[in-house]
C-alpha cells in the first residue's frame, strides 16, 4: 500500500508540471479484447527470398588459411624427423642438494657460575696424578739402573716340549741356586725353585724340584735332576724339567753362594725359627765351608742355640744347605723355600738405601736370560703382587715317589727318587695353573 501511495504522489507531481490544457487530459480506455483483427484474407502472404549468394573469403581469411596449412605441414615434418632421428639427451648427473647456509650469528656464551669446591677438587686431582707420574718415572729409572747391572746371558739352544703346560695368566721364572763358589765356577744346581705368579688366584707359588729325582736328561740319559745343570747349564735344566714334568719354563735366574748371602745382607737379614740341631749344623757349615769362602775367621757368626733368630747372609746360606738334619733332602728343600719366602716378603718392603746396596753389590753376580724389557715388565708387577698369597709346593709330592739305588755309568751306586710323573703332572696343573 505504501508503494501505491508513493506512485500516486509521483504522478500528481508530474501532472502539475504539464501546461494547464493538458493537465485534465485522460487517455481513452481501449478494450484490447474487443479489438477487431484483420481478416485472414486480407493478410499479406509471406515472401521467401532466395538464399544469398556465397560470400567470397576476405583477403585476411585467405592468409590465415594458408598459414594454417603451412604450420600443419611443418609440424608433420617435425614429427617425422623426431621419430627417425631422435637421440635421447645424456642423463643428467644428480645435482647435490644445497646445503643449508650456516648462520654466522655468534652464540651467546652462558656465563658459568664459579664453584670454589670444583676448583679445589680439580687442583687436588691434578696434583695427585702429577705425583703418580713423578713416582712412576722415579721407579722406572731405579728399576732400569738395577736391571742394567744384571749379567744377561742369551738363551742357548733349547729342546722344547710342545705338550708342556702354559697359561696366559701365569708367569713363571726358574730360580737356580748353584753350589758354585765363584763367578766362574758353574757347579751343580743345589736348589731349583719355580717362582710362579698366578693372576687369577692372586697367588705366588714356590715350587721346589728335588735334586735327587731320577729323570731322563735330553741327550744324556737317566740321571739325577741336579746333574742337568752341570752338563748343559740352565738351558738343559729347563729342557729336562719340561720334558719330564711337562711345565713350560722360558726364563731363569741363577744365584751362587756369594750372591745369595749378599742378597740377605742387603735387606738386613731375615727372621727364622731354628731348632737346636739346626743351629749346631749351621755352625758346622760355617766352620767347614762358608766362613772360609767369605774370607772370615772359622768361628765367626756362630749360633749359641736355637729359637726365633735373626740370621745374616752367611747364617741363612748355611741354614738353606742343611741336609743331614731331619728327613734329608725333603726338609732341605722346605728350608730353601722358607728362606726364599722370607727374602721375597722383606724385599717388597725394603728401604731405598737397601735397593742401592743390592744394585751395587748383588745384582752384578746374578745371571739371567731375560731381556731388559722383560725384566722391566716383570718389575712392574711388584706393586700388584704385594697383596698375593704365598704358597709352597714340593715336587715330587708325598706318596708319588719311592727311593731306589741305581748304578751309574761309572759303576757306582747312588740313591735316587723314582717319580710317578703322571701324578705330579696333575699336582702341578692344580697348584700352579688352577683357576
Describe this protein's structure.
With 435 residues, the chain is an alpha/beta fold. α6 crosses α8 and α6 runs antiparallel to α10. The mean pLDDT is 80. The strands form four sheets. It has a seven-stranded mixed sheet, with helices on both faces. Strands 5-6 form a two-stranded antiparallel ribbon. The chain contains twelve helices and 13 strands. The longest helix is centred in the first third of the chain and has 33 residues, at 116-148. β5 and β6 form a beta hairpin.
CATH architecture of the largest domain: 3-Layer(aba) Sandwich
Q: Give the overall form.
A: elongated
Q: Roughly what fraction of the amino acids lie in strands?
A: 15-25%
Could you say how many structural domains there are in total? 2
The level of helicity is 40-55%
Question: Which CATH class of the largest domain applies here?
Answer: Alpha Beta
> How would you spell out the order of helices and strands?
HHHHEEEEEEHEHEHEHHHEHEEEH
Amino acid at each position: 500500500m505504501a508503494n501505491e501511495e508513493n506512485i500516486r504522489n509521483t504522478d500528481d507531481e508530474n501532472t502539475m508540471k504539464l501546461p494547464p490544457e493538458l493537465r485534465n487530459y485522460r487517455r481513452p480506455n481501449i478494450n484490447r479484447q474487443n479489438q477487431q483483427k484483420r481478416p485472414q484474407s486480407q493478410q499479406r502472404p509471406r515472401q521467401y527470398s532466395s538464399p544469398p549468394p556465397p560470400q567470397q573469403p576476405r583477403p585476411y581469411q585467405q592468409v590465415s588459411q594458408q598459414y594454417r596449412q603451412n604450420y600443419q605441414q611443418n609440424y608433420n615434418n617435425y614429427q617425422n624427423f623426431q621419430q627417425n632421428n631422435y637421440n635421447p639427451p645424456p642423463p643428467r648427473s644428480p645435482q647435490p642438494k644445497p646445503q643449508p647456509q650456516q648462520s654466522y650469528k655468534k652464540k651467546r656464551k652462558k656465563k658459568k657460575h664459579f664453584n670454589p669446591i670444583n676448583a679445589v677438587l680439580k687442583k687436588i686431582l691434578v696434583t695427585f696424578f702429577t705425583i703418580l707420574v713423578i713416582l712412576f718415572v722415579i721407579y722406572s729409572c731405579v728399576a732400569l739402573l738395577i736391571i742394567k747391572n744384571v749379567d744377561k746371558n742369551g738363551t742357548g739352544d733349547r729342546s722344547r716340549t710342545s705338550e708342556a703346560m702354559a697359561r696366559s695368566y701365569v708367569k713363571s721364572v726358574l730360580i737356580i741356586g748353584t753350589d758354585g763358589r765363584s763367578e766362574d765356577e758353574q757347579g751343580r744346581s743345589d736348589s731349583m725353585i719355580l717362582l710362579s705368579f698366578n693372576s687369577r688366584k692372586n697367588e705366588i707359588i714356590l715350587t721346589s724340584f728335588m735334586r735327587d729325582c731320577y729323570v731322563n736328561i735330553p741327550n744324556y740319559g737317566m740321571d739325577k735332576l741336579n746333574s742337568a745343570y752341570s752338563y748343559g747349564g740352565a738351558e738343559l735344566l729347563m729342557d729336562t724339567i719340561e720334558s719330564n714334568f711337562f711345565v713350560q719354563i722360558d726364563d731363569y735366574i741363577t744365584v751362587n753362594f756369594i750372591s745369595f748371602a749378599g742378597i740377605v745382607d742387603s735387606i738386613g737379614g731375615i727372621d727364622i725359627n731354628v731348632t737346636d740341631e739346626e743351629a749346631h749344623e749351621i755352625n758346622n757349615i760355617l766352620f767347614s765351608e762358608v766362613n772360609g769362602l767369605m774370607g772370615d775367621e772359622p768361628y765367626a757368626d756362630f749360633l749359641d742355640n736355637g729359637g726365633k733368630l735373626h740370621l745374616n747372609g752367611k747364617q741363612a746360606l748355611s741354614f738353606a744347605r742343611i741336609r743331614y738334619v731331619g728327613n734329608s733332602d725333603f726338609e732341605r728343600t722346605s728350608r730353601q723355600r722358607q728362606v726364599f719366602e722370607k727374602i721375597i716378603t722383606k724385599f717388597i718392603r725394603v728401604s731405598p738405601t737397601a735397593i742401592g746396596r743390592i744394585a751395587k753389590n748383588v745384582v752384578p753376580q746374578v745371571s739371567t736370560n731375560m731381556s731388559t724389557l722383560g725384566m722391566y715388565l716383570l718389575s712392574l708387577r711388584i706393586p700388584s703382587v704385594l697383596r698375593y698369597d704365598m704358597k709352597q709346593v714340593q715336587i715330587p709330592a708325598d706318596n708319588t715317589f719311592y727311593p731306589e739305588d741305581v748304578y751309574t755309568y761309572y759303576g757306582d751306586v747312588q740313591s735316587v727318587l723314582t717319580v710317578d710323573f703322571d701324578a705330579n703332572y696333575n699336582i702341578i696343573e692344580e697348584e700352579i695353573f688352577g683357576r
